[in-house]
Amino acid sequence: MNKLCDGVFEGGGMRGIGLVGAVARLEKEGYKFRHVAGSSAGAIVASLVAAGYDSEELYQVMKNVDFERFKAPHWRGLGPMGLLLNAGKNFGIYSPDLFENWLADLLARKNVYTFADLPEGKLRVTASDVTDERVLVLPNDLAGFGINPKGFKVATAVRMSMGIPVFYEPYELTDVNGDIHYIVDGGMLANYPVWILDDGSKQLDLPLFGFRFVHHKGRSKSKKPHLLTYLKQIINTIIEANDDECGVIVRGDLQRTIYIDTRVGDTVVGITDFNLPMEKIEGMYHNGYDSCHAFLHTWDLKHWNNAFRR
Predict the structure, then answer these.
(1) pLDDT tens across 224-280, in order?
(2) Residues 129 and 50 sit within 8 Å (Cβ to Cβ)
(3) Is 201 a catalytic residue?
(4) Ramachandran category for residue 111: left, alpha or beta (phi over 0 → left; psi -120 to 50 → alpha)
(5) 3-state DSSP: the chain helix, strand, coil percent, rounded to 5?
């Protein structure tokens, strides 16, 4: 018997395979998602869940895709100089076009192209408008740019949400006045947007589960990093520091959040570890599955409502 729930997926780059493991455990328990929201890698998983992918399909997609191929600069054949030229001209080292095309193809297999192809409110993702220095919730906030939210491509919205700053070129969004807004990774400002689906003001008729990653501090770096490694460290710091500051955003979040460990063996999986070996991918998947399994042993919606929404 299917049980409905809502889900909010935190961003985490290559850690996102852990989200798939957690979804697999929920499915085994009989849960189906009504509404989903997410940021960055969480937006990728949320979009595929919203389109109708089950956990086994998600696992096959995520473990077999070569994320290294999404690192496609416009300036080919120039080595590191080409990357710098691309960053200087386009505000990002790599183009996200290949990623968007890949995701659009996956969504098309489920006949999902624009938000009009999904039930109302089924999917929402965050992005960061660095021009106006604010969070965008897509597709809703597109109306303020004179864009019909329903007619906007889902893959484009997710591209905006996962646009790691500096690493990927920002998306250029033009407003009604003709001004260009530069849109980057939603994780910069709202990496765990539980407030999209629950503002904390009322009792819930069905559970909202949050999916977050456990961040491990104190990793020492004995050698001076090269430029790309240094940029990755900056990105990790921005996103993970944002998470630490957010803490518990809505009352009762801690008690309904599934925390997924980012350690696999003696390695901590980083946001930009695009060339993970298969054993690390499988390890993150099982981290998500096991974390969700342990969480469900303690979960009770009635008890949660009584404790936090009386």
Answers:
(1) 655 566 666 666 666 555 554 444 467 888 899 999 999 998 888 877 777 788 899
(2) no
(3) no
(4) left
(5) 45, 20, 35
Task: Enter the tokens of residue 160.
Answer: 């905006």
Cβ distance 38 to 209 under 8 Å?
A: no
> Per-residue confidence at 215, pLDDT binned at 50, 70, 90?
confident
* CA distance readout (Å), 192 to 27, 64, 125: 22, 26, 10
CA-to-CA separations, 98 to 71, 95, 102, 173, 192, in angstroms, rounded: 8, 7, 6, 19, 26
Which position among 39, 40, 47, 128 bears the catalytic label? 40
Q: Is 198 a catalytic residue?
A: no
Please tell me whether the overall predicted TM-score, pTM, comes out greater than 0.85 for this model: yes
- Beta-ladder partners of 181: 173
On the CB side of 62, CA atoms within 13 Å amount to 28
Q: Which two tokens stand for residue 109?
A: 């297999």
Single out the catalytic residue among 6, 129, 141, 185: 185
The values of phi and psi at residue 189, to 5°, are -120, -25
